[in-house]
Amino acid sequence: MNTKDNILVIGAGLCGSLLSLRLAQRGYQVTLVEKRPDLRKTTQDAGRSINLALSDRGLKGLRLAGVEEDAKKLCIPMNGRMIHDRQSNTFLSKYSGRKNEYINSVSRPGLNKLLLDAAEAMPNVKIIFNHGCKTVDLPNASATFKNYETNEEVTLSGDILLGTDGAGSAVRKNMFLHKKFLFSFSQDWLTHGYKELEIPAKKDGGYRTYTNALHIWPRGEDMLIALPNLDGSFTVTLFLPYKNSDYCFENLNTPERVTEYFEKEFPDALELMPNLAEEFFNNPTGPLGTIKCSPWSTYGKTLLLGDAAHAIVPFYGQGMNASFEDVVVFDEILEKYESNLTDGTLHWETIFQEYEVNRKKDTDAIADLAVDNFHEMKEHTASPLFQRKRKLETAFEAEFPQEYYSKYSLVTFNEHITYDEALRKGRAQDKAILNLLDDGKLPDSLSLQEKLKLVKRETKEIMHDDAVVKNLK
Amino acid sequence: MNTKDNILVIGAGLCGSLLSLRLAQRGYQVTLVEKRPDLRKTTQDAGRSINLALSDRGLKGLRLAGVEEDAKKLCIPMNGRMIHDRQSNTFLSKYSGRKNEYINSVSRPGLNKLLLDAAEAMPNVKIIFNHGCKTVDLPNASATFKNYETNEEVTLSGDILLGTDGAGSAVRKNMFLHKKFLFSFSQDWLTHGYKELEIPAKKDGGYRTYTNALHIWPRGEDMLIALPNLDGSFTVTLFLPYKNSDYCFENLNTPERVTEYFEKEFPDALELMPNLAEEFFNNPTGPLGTIKCSPWSTYGKTLLLGDAAHAIVPFYGQGMNASFEDVVVFDEILEKYESNLTDGTLHWETIFQEYEVNRKKDTDAIADLAVDNFHEMKEHTASPLFQRKRKLETAFEAEFPQEYYSKYSLVTFNEHITYDEALRKGRAQDKAILNLLDDGKLPDSLSLQEKLKLVKRETKEIMHDDAVVKNLK
């Protein structure tokens, strides 16, 4: 154990904490550096994604590090989307026709604390807070930090440096500006921003609306969602265009306008939100962006993981899950090379490159799926054709649980297949069902089994036709 | 005329020169600033895209400014791709089954000089060379330049500022760094770089190989191409991986290795290139990248056009053509607003935004088509299924010239439809033919007319099926 490399991990958020814990379990000496104060000692970041959706891919990562059971104590199961229409009618659209397939609402700081505690309990992990990364010496796995308590500069280095410093990654920015290699990079912003609000708990600590669902108020261009917290409250997020719309962040500029907007679009939510106007103007408006880049590693010395490598929009509830799955994939490759060691030295460059070749197509896929779901959640859930598709899929999943998995199920509950496979199969299935329905080829006269057979055949044909074009390349 | 706005144009390459000429013809006061020396007085940039493909969309832009006929004098028609195999066999794959559909090889500096001369002949155009743009004051349509002759700083401003300063645009970089709005941006690099080489003219000034074709030596991962020049020479471009290949820029590091590589892969080209090794090591290796961004305009004061807004890889021969088409589209919108003037003032912000809404989907489309064609040129041209497709398409175009246009023809010779339409229809046609061929549904027993009917029906179905999925959004 003593001869294992020193690893410098920058960023002690969800990904960096889990990664550090796992690397320490493998016997590495880990130094984990975080720019923010220790969140176990302060409260911070009000109004920024207080709770998140944790599902099977994320749980697999937590399981790998032995913290799944502890994490589950922080979870509230959500069995489906509770759709709220303008007339305050609700109906539950289940995530799956199978009973054991649900997602969980979990507190971001709660889960982060759990992971920091577990990492800190390892003798070979050192965590340093309040140190902001200023520059990275990429070829030497070394970085200079500003100590925000003393304003001093500190330089730290490792045998390798792992950047898990999130969507605004300082490590990635250093790669972008490095200029000695070609760095592909994209940042794509949606026309919408988000703002976090709250449905507080009842005075007795109970929930003001149905607990075990992800609540959605889809309104075409706008959307409101709410996820439950353990303390009886819901964290509510409003997704709204920045401008060029009857109601948008640019023109919702008085408490009266905000209330008018909620009265018109989300009357049943408004009833549950006594502090709406105050929160609306106190909480920041956040942008919604997708970040992709390549290469993730440089000089066989530095590697990006998690949001630093692939920030995605939140509409599939997969951001944290993708980051935890990064740790699983990286760990598998590390395991392979560790068990085949000949001269006692790991060739990190090979490991980093194999990790990217393995993983990038999948994080690209979940990024694209998350943008698709942005449109699905705010618009499609109100389309009759889409609703017929969802109804049919739920019936397939209930009646033939081993034979049919919707795109959502493939992404969310089938962690044994990759995001890329889930995207290809899921999109082909959607296309097959929508076109069969639109062409009147799934009449009521057919049995559910006959319908499933047609859908499967059409899906197979679509995937075959796509492959003929693609395999030429 | 005297009351028209002052326009500051940054970048006097192909796009900036044509745009300035056209705006001057409309009566605007134009100041055109270029960082390089006047190319009419110096020779420069050896080894960087000396000739380009000019086709219908580009010619339309030149026609708009009244310089098409002069430009045609610089053109050498190319009727198809002359494919060279490893055994030095050649065959001509025509660009179209229609006789009047061909592309042209044109000298970049030659065409640029022509446009600068035409712009400079206008009394309301002032051209300033040797001034590099350092910073842009986006809200005030003002920019600071370094005069490379005196090292002094100069600030210039206009009522509006147009950035036509190419793929490395300083104006765009200022937008990226501005931080007061969300700027979507991507730079995507291919794994390949390029290097320009030469087949010199014969001693008598004649051509050493067939003149009226774009010569291609497709070799899977690598590719060599050659375009004719008026002086009897050909400009040759080698596209090759940077690394991780038997032959790549990283390991072609001695004259012997370079010659060995050409002997093995391009023996007939090598015979025509007496100065190969010298040129290989003297000329730079250039990267191949796609750049997309949005918004193209800020504050109703600045707008990006040409490569500054949308740099693409060269594999469709559409880079210059897309930039000239930008001028056509911008001019059409300007015409509409000028002829509907009520209070005498143009609202540039509206014009800029309408231009982007109109144009961006098309420049995104040609960017994607150009990457597709990278794979088509280096790999597919050698695939039997692809060759059967091309043969069938050429027959369709020859026999039914008004009824069938291949993707290449739609993009290159059908300037009345947009790149986006060309992409959607062209990809659907390709998918239809490849799958019909692959499934054995176009047997020789069918007449050409029957085959065309099947292809058209299948294409229509593919486009319909795609639309059902898309229109949900």
TrEMBL record, chains A, B:
Biological process (GO) annotations held by this record are: anthranilate metabolic process; kynurenine metabolic process; L-tryptophan catabolic process; NAD+ biosynthetic process; quinolinate biosynthetic process
Domain of life, source organism: Bacteria
Query: What is an example of a GO molecular function annotated in this UniProt entry?
Result: kynurenine 3-monooxygenase activity
Q: Which pathway does this chain act in?
A: Cofactor biosynthesis; NAD(+) biosynthesis; quinolinate from L-kynurenine: step 1/3
The cofactors named for this UniProt entry are:
FAD
Q: What family does the entry list?
A: Belongs to the aromatic-ring hydroxylase family. KMO subfamily.
Know the name of this protein? Answer: Kynurenine 3-monooxygenase
Supply the source organism for this entry: Marixanthomonas ophiurae
Q: What is the name of the gene encoding this protein?
A: kmo
